[in-house]
Design goal:
Layout (H helix, E strand, L loop, with lengths): L5 H6 L1 H5 L4 H13 L6 H13 L5 H9 L11 H8 L3 H10 L6 H9 L6 H12 L8 H13 L7 H12 L6 H12 L3 H8 L7 H12 L4 H13 L4 H14 L4 H10 L6 H8 L3 H10 L4 H11 L5 H14 L3 H14 L2 H9 L6 H12 L3 H10 L5 H11 L5 H13 L5 H4 L1 H7 L5 H9 L6 H12 L3 H8 L13 H10 L5 H13 L6 H12 L5 H9 L6 H12 L3 H7 L6 H11 L5 H4 L2 H12 L5 H13 L5 H13 L6 H12 L3 H8 L5 H9 L8 H13 L1 E2 L2 E2 L12 H8 L4 H9 L7 E4 L9 E4 H7 L7 H9 L15 H7 L3 H9 L14 H8 L1 H14 L7 H7 L3 H9 L16 H8 L8 H16 L13 H6 L4 H13 L10 E2 L3 E3 L1 H7 L7 H10 L6 E3 L13 H177 L19
Antiparallel strand pairs: 1-2, 3-4, 5-6, 6-7
Helix pairs in contact: 3-5, 4-5, 4-6, 5-7, 6-8, 7-9, 8-9, 9-11, 10-11, 10-12, 12-14, 14-15, 14-16, 15-17, 16-17, 16-18, 17-19, 18-19, 18-20, 19-21, 20-21, 20-22, 21-23, 22-23, 22-24, 24-25, 24-26, 26-27, 27-30, 29-30, 29-31, 30-32, 31-32, 31-33, 32-34, 35-36, 35-37, 36-38, 37-38, 37-39, ...
Protein name: Ankyrin repeat protein
Pfam families: Ank_2
InterPro entries: Ankyrin_rpt (IPR002110), Ankyrin_rpt-contain_sf (IPR036770)
Length: 1253
């Protein structure tokens, strides 16, 4: 039987590990290893990991896998070592490390796996096992950090020895608490774990001063004050660096100012000489800490000076006094004390000032800045002290103090400061400028004004800005002080006239009461009546609500209303301000000025303002003052022109007032009377007629009598006024008519088109009945035509003028046959066109001519027939009864309107149905029916019957069906009708069905001939009725005819005449013959092309051969040319080489000379370098000796460290020996327990031992 291979045995290891019987598994695993299953390294490692994962671990199997299987304990990325470390039995880890083969990563991996485990004696024991198996020194610092972090995070008993055993073990084995910037120590201190800190302080490698310094901030971060103090004290007493302690001191002062014990502890060891802690104590306003620092640390005077500057910024005067007193007592420079005195003086802190003066502060320092600061702070008491102590203070200092006092917010204090400085002699611009700010300050600034004005301040400074400011701010009290209108102001400087004028301008936007008071004060102060005062009067009058008190004050003070073109009075008139105007008119005013005022006030632009009851009062005052002239007449015209029914009563008052004061009725060609007549106002007209108008005025006014719509009675009354007026030779002349005006009759009829009484009155008065005017009758005539009143009345649209008025004109003899010049229209034509049969009848009775035509050739009868209907028939009957004119287009109109009765009458009266009427484009009456008979509306069944009857009558009356209009037969005209289908159907039925295919129905356009059907298909545009028309024609036996009149016939030609058909047949045969001949010619051409192609190929071959021969000859010529060029090049190269050789020799000689010079320079440089090297060697020797001495010191230090490490190694070995003995004792104990009779299976208990205390 063949034995299994090692690989097969290794593959079965995993199967064996699944066996639950431990003894059988052990035996099978031993058999596999005997079969060299250990070659499967991976399988063995997996089996080892599975064994370590069991609980409890099968120790016999573990020994077997490690010894016979030679398992790699470092395999599987350290999982095996991880499981061994995590196993609670330290013997498992000891077995793995003892039997297994280690590498460089074994121990570090074990330590990494051990670090996360809870801190117990078991962990410390495992640590001892791991360290005992290491043959080299290990870096335990990182594990120390993790161990401290684990202990800090552990919430169990902090002082338990079992939890601290691992930490102690690490420190005993050389772990350094100073590693990683003292991270272990910092972690323990930050967590306030005193046992941990004590252990690290008592270990072999105690914390260094640098580590203590790093841990100090963590101690200060402890929240509990007692722990914070205890740990800080421990670190400080252990020897933390004074510089770092000083930094901690600064932090403690900044954040734990009230923890005096902590600050005291830090201050005892801190190096606070840099003054940062002192400055921080000052900024924290803590006198106690300041005393502590000043007593324990010696600071420079500069630091104390700086702290004094900082202390002066403290707002609490009590704290500032306490701190500054201590600093001054400790010693500050006089300059610093003087600077502090400036601030104290500005603040008015007398007590602090006394302290500073007592410790060296001088008032005279900084050019008397102390006085300036006292003024700036408004400290009157301090200023009094300073001024008493320094009698001889410079004026410049006092002026600067005066300027600084302007910053004092309390104006009363500022005034007191000003008063003391002014008494010491301050004067000039610096004082004057204070008037402005004080004047703007209102009631609070009065005291300052009194002080500076009493001291001689000039109110005219800066163009009187102070007076203007007080005025603009409406501070009357301040203004009176500035103007000297107070009991102590008699000796002060007075305000100049320009200043008073500026104040007058500034006060204008104030309230009326304050402004009045200010203006009154200005006049009291001596303001004169200059141009500005006159302008002020104009402004006062021009306000919306004038202040009469102010106007009276200005007038009493000399202001004149007549300046600037009487502007003030014009404003009063334009604003219809009666009360101010009354004040102004109290003065003597010339007639010229009063007329100027009236004309300036009563203007067209201001009409809406003065046309009011107030304006009436103003006008009355001016007229009583003597106003007259054209302005009076112009104002009355404005009143009349703009009067309405609502304002008529007011207008009557104005008119009556103006007439009473002598208005000129003939003003501007009698414009007053003209407007009175135009407005049809009998009251105005009657009043104005009393003013004796001229004849021209009467005529012009009478022409405007009918401009406004009034009742006929009112108009007749006005007419009576005009017609009955007589003043000597002056009276109304009805024959006078101004150029370009409308006739009176036209105006009267336009205004009263239904009133016979008005027209009859005018005609009875003698007005001519045939007056002419111009009017546009027809739209087609662009220019108006001259016509009589009768024509004009008939031509009015919508029968505006009543028939009674027209009949009255006719009865009075109006020309009934008047004919216009352009359109040649007569009254009868217009009466027909306006559909007025009564007027037509009246005109015919009066002899109106019927046999006339207008410019378009129309007769009255044709016009009547165009109207259609019963009305047309009535007017035709009247016209035919008077005259029997023939062939004037009337029949065509009647036929178009399908008026069978009119058509019958007209034919009976001699009108020919085929007359080519020029009014109808030369068509016959039947052609007019065919084309336009359906234009009047949709062809209903009744209208179709009527059209059929009209067409039948015309045909029977002799109408010729073959007559064409513009080349189109009557049937083709039907196609162009509005209702083409119905018209064609009626015409075919009436007459054309018989002659539908006759030649006269064909249409020729010069090139082709079309039958009616082909005309519809090819000539007529597309329409909705096209197909229906074709169907209708086909039903009436229409035949298609379409052919060319000459030349070739189209492909779709049809219905050709016989001769044309023969010609077309011959033409087609000829075309066939030509086509065959063309094909034969094309075949011959193709054959010739083939022959030509063959000949071309032969010539191309010959040309190719000739080209090859020529290329060969050309190549031979090129070879000869190249050979010649090569020869010439070789000769040139030889000559070039000779020249280069000569040049090389010259260059070489030059180089030799240069090298000789360079060698000499190089030798000199080497000499210099040699000397430099010697000096460097000497210096390096000294450096080497120094480095050697330093190295010897480091070697001695290293030897000392080695000695310490050897002592540590000896201690570790002793511990390992003791550990080993303990393990052996435990093994013996375990064997005795296992050999007890009745005990459990010994093999299953291997490796599982309970801890025995």
């Amino acid at each position: 039987m063949q034995a299994a291979s090692p690989q097969t045995a290794a593959a079965r290891i995993q199967d064996v590990m699944k066996v639950t019987d431990h003894r059988a598994r052990y035996d099978m695993m031993a058999m596999l290893f005997n079969a060299r299953a250990s070659v499967g390294v991976q399988h063995v490692a997996d089996a080892l990991l599975a064994t370590l994962s069991e609980k409890p671990v099968d120790m016999s199997l573990l020994h077997l896998i490690l010894q016979q299987g030679r398992a790699d304990i470092n395999a599987l990325d350290g999982q095996i070592l991880q499981k061994a470390v995590q196993n609670p039995d330290p013997k498992v880890l000891d077995t793995v490390l003892s039997i297994g083969k280690q590498n460089v990563d074994t121990i570090p991996r074990c330590l990494d796996g051990l670090a996360p485990l809870p801190s117990t004696d078991n962990k410390a024991w495992k640590l001892g096992v791991i360290l005992s198996k290491s043959a080299r020194k290990l870096d335990l610092n990182s594990m120390l950090v993790r161990e401290v972090q684990s202990l800090v995070q552990d919430s169990s008993d902090k002082s338990s020895m079992s939890t601290l055993s691992t930490l102690k073990k690490l420190l005993e084995c050389g772990a350094d608490p100073n590693a990683y910037q003292a991270r272990p120590l910092c972690t323990a201190v930050a967590a306030a774990r005193e046992p941990l800190v004590d252990i690290m302080f008592n270990c072999e490698k105690s914390p260094t001063p640098a580590s203590l310094a790093v841990a100090l901030p963590h101690a200060l971060s402890i929240s509990d004050p007692m722990n914070r103090l205890a740990f800080t004290k421990t670190l400080v007493e252990a020897g933390a660096l004074p510089r770092e302690v000083n930094r901690a001191l600064g932090h403690a002062i900044g954040h734990f100012t009230s923890d005096f014990a902590l600050v005291s502890t830090l201050a005892s060891s801190a190096d606070a000489s840099d003054g940062e802690a002192l400055a921080l104590a000052v900024s924290k306003e803590s006198p106690e800490i300041l005393d502590l620092l000043l007593s324990r640390t010696k600071h420079t005077i500069e630091i104390r000076n700086s702290c004094l500057d900082t202390a002066m910024k403290i707002t609490d005067w009590t704290s500032r006094l306490a701190i500054c007193s201590r600093l001054a007592k400790a010693g500050v420079s006089p300059q610093a004390a003087s600077n502090a005195l400036l601030i104290a003086a500005r603040d008015g802190d007398l007590e602090l000032g006394d302290v500073l003066i007592a410790h060296g502060a001088s008032i005279s320092t900084n050019d008397g800045q102390a006085i300036i600061e006292a003024c700036r702070g408004g400290s009157v008491e301090v200023l009094d002290v300073l001024l008493r102590s320094n009698v001889d203070v410079q004026k410049l200092t006092l002026e600067r103090g005066f300027q600084a006092a302007t910053e004092v917010g309390d104006l009363n204090k500022r005034a007191m400061v000003f008063e003391r400085l002014l008494k010491r002699g301050v004067s000039g611009e610096v004082v004057d400028i204070q008037l402005v700010s004080a004047a703007k300050s209102g009631e609070a600034g009065k005291e300052i004004l009194r002080v500076v004005l009493a001291a001689g301040a000039d109110p005219n400074y800066s163009n009187g800005e102070a007076v203007v400011a007080a005025t603009r701010s409406a501070f009357v009290g301040n203004l009176e002080l500035l103007l000297g209108l107070w009991h102590q102001g008699s000796n002060q400087k007075k305000a100049s006239p320009p200043t008073l004028i500026r104040a007058l301008k500034a006060c204008w936007k104030l309230s009326s009461d304050i402004r009045y008071q200010i203006v009154e004060d200005l006049f009291k102060a001596g303001m004169l009546a200059t141009d500005e005062v006159h302008i002020a009067l104009s402004k006062a009058v021009g306000e919306d609500e004038p202040d009469e008190r102010l106007i009276q004050l200005l007038l009493d003070s000399g202001a004149s209303p007549l300046t600037n073109g009487c502007y003030a009075m014009v404003q009063a008139v334009q604003g219809v301000k009666a009360s101010p105007l009354k004040l102004l008119l109290a003065r003597d005013i010339s007639e010229q000025d009063i007329n100027q005022i009236f004309s300036g006030g009563f203007t067209a632009e201001k009409f809406a303002t003065w046309f009011s009851p107030e304006g009436f009062e103003v006008a009355k005052m001016l007229l009583e003052k003597g106003a007259n002239g054209d302005a009076l007449s112009g104002a009355m015209v404005l009143v009349m022109k703009n009067s309405t029914d609502q304002t008529e009563s007011l207008a009557d008052q104005f008119v009556e007032l103006f007439i009473e004061h002598g208005v000129d009725v003939d003003y501007e060609n009698g414009e007053p009377l003209v407007w009175a007549a135009s407005k049809a106002n009998a009251f105005w007209t009657e009043k104005l007629l009393t003013c004796k108008p001229s004849a021209q005025t009467l005529s012009l006014a009478f022409e405007r009598l009918f401009d406004t719509a009034r009742s006929p009675d009112e108009v007749l009354r006005l007419f009576e006024l005009f017609s009955g007026y007589r003043d000597g030779e002056v009276g109304l002349d009805i024959m006078v008519r101004s150029p370009g005006s409308e006739p009176i009759l036209v105006k009267a009829i336009s205004q009263y088109p239904r009133s016979s009484e008005v027209l009859q009155t005018l005609l009875d008065a003698g007005f001519y009945h045939d007056q002419t005017t111009t009017y546009r009758i027809h739209d087609k005539v662009d220019e108006p035509e001259e016509l009589t009143v009768l024509v004009w009345a008939i031509a009015q649209p919508q029968k505006k003028v009543s028939s009674n008025l027209i009949k009255m004109l006719i009865e009075r003899g109006a020309n009934v046959n008047f004919e216009t010049t352009i359109s040649r229209t007569t009254p009868l034509m217009l009466a027909i066109q306006t559909r007025r049969p009564d007027i037509v009848k009246e005109l015919l009775i009066e002899g109106a001519n019927v046999d006339v035509t207008d410019a378009m050739g129309r007769t009255p009868l044709s016009m009547a027939t165009e109207i259609g209907g019963e009305l047309s028939t009535r007017m035709m009957g009247n016209l035919l009864a008077i005259d029997q004119s023939e062939d004037d287009g009337s029949l065509h109109n009647a036929a178009r309107e399908l008026n069978l009765a009119a058509v019958t009458v007209l034919v009976e009266h001699g009108h020919h149905p085929d007359f080519p009427s020029p009014l109808h484009d030369g068509r016959s009456a039947l052609g007019e029916v065919c084309l336009n008979g359906s234009n009047s509306g949709a062809l209903t069944a009744d209208r179709e019957k009527l059209m059929n009857r009209v067409m039948t009558f015309l045909v029977k009356a002799g109408s010729d069906l073959s007559i064409k209009s513009h080349g189109k037969s009557l049937l083709l005209l039907c196609f162009e009708a509005s209702d083409a289908l119905a018209t064609t159907r009626v015409f075919l039925k009436a007459a054309m069905w018989k002659d539908i295919n006759k030649p006269f129905n064909h249409y020729t356009d010069g090139e082709y001939t079309y039958s009616p059907t082909m005309y519809i298909k090819k000539v007529m545009p597309e329409s909705d009725t096209r197909d229906q028309l074709l169907e209708l024609l086909q039903k009436n036996r229409a035949v298609d005819v379409y052919y060319a009149n000459s030349g070739d016939q189209p492909d779709d030609a049809i219905g050709l005449p016989a001769d044309m058909e023969v010609e077309e047949r011959e033409r087609r045969a000829r075309l066939r013959r030509i086509m065959l001949e063309s094909e034969d010619h094309a075949i011959a051409l193709a054959r010739r092309k083939e022959v030509a192609n063959v000949e071309r190929e032969i010539w191309e071959n010959k040309a190719e051969i000739e080209d090859a021969r020529r290329r060969k000859l050309h190549n031979e010529d090129l070879m000869a040319t190249r050979h010649k060029a090569d020869l010439e090049e070789s000769l040139f190269n030889s000559a070039l080489k000779r020249r280069l050789s000569e040049q090389h020799k010259l260059t070489q000689s030059s180089l030799d000379r240069t090298k000789a010079v360079a060698a000499a320079e190089l030798k000199a440089e080497e000499t210099r370098q040699q000397k430099m090297l010697e000096w460097e060697t000497k210096m390096n020797t000294e450096r080497a000796s120094n480095a050697q001495a330093l190295s010897s010191l480091r070697v001695s230090e290293r030897e000392e460290l080695d000695r310490i490490e050897r002592g540590s190694d000896e201690r570790i070995n002793k511990r390992l020996e003791a550990q080993k003995k303990l393990v052996e004792t435990q093994e013996r104990l375990a064997k005795r327990i296992a050999s007890v009779p009745g005990g459990a299976d010994a093999r299953r208990q291997i490796g599982f031992v309970e801890e025995v205390n």
